[in-house]
Each structure stands twice: as structure tokens, then as C-alpha cells.
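task queued by scheduler; priority normal; single chain, no ligands, no partner chains; default sampling; output format set to C-alpha cells
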Amino acid sequence: MTRAGVDQLLYMLDRAFAPIDDDVEHSLLHNLEAVTEDDFLRAAPNGNRTIVQITWHAAAAKLMYANHCFGDGTLTWDELFNHWEGKPSKTEMIDWLREAHAEFRGLIEPLDDGALTVERKAPWGAMHETRWIVAQIIEHDVYHAGEINLIRALLQDTDSRPTFDE
């Protein structure tokens, strides 16, 4: 049994989620660090989604994938939405996001490379290889990290605007 593929996916999963070393500025948690508590609850100008909503979605997706791909498949989005009474603080939401990451990661960590091509049921019912599922979570974290970074920059008026007129 080999684990090189699983170990590489775990490395990328952790890198997309949280800074492992000083050069990980594109991770989900790194981008949440610069968000103020007030900005966490606000949408960008002309936007509809807040950073807290995006963070909730990132955590909930990990829990949905964990339950549907590796568990009994009974978890619902409504159940996850009702996890909170009122608006969670930035710290509470990041703690929940960390727990969701740990739960998903904990399901991948014991696998060997042979399990990477095993098909599992995604939350919407389609069958996909385990490696595809892990890649989806990695890409999902990086996507939302960029989204959070842009919303934060727009709210804090620190978005760089290069010009090409020169």
C-alpha cells in the first residue's frame, strides 16, 4: 500500500486551507485574518454576499462532502444553516470552519492510494472518484479565499487597480 498520492493531496488540502509556512498567502484562513469583525458581516458595494456567508458556505460544504461521500448521506444544507442562532462572530465561524476542515481531513488521512480511485457519492448524488472529491474541496477553499480577499479589499478600499492606459 502506497500513500504518496494521499500525502500530496493532504499537503495541498492543508495549504489551500491554512498557512503551513510563511509563503501561503492564498489560503482561506490567511485571507480571513485581514478581515475585521465589521467587514465580516458586510457585503461589498453592490454585492449581496457577506464574508460570513462565504465562510459559512466553505465550512458547510466540507461537512456536506464528509457526510455524503464518507458517511450516511443524511446531512442537509438546512441542518447546517440552522446550526447558528443569530449571526456568528468571526471567531465562532472560523472555529467552525476549522472543525469542518478537521472532519473532512480526518476522513482522507487514513486512506491509501488505492482508495483515491474509489467512487463516492457527492452531495448532489453524482458518483466521483475520491481524488476528484478532495480536489473539489481544495479548489473550493482557494476560490473562496480569493473571493474573500476581493470583498475585504473593496470594503477596506485597498484593492489595487492597475491601469493599462500608459
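post-processing summary
- Residues 42 and 50 are 5 Å apart (CA to CA).
- The chain has a mean pLDDT of 92.
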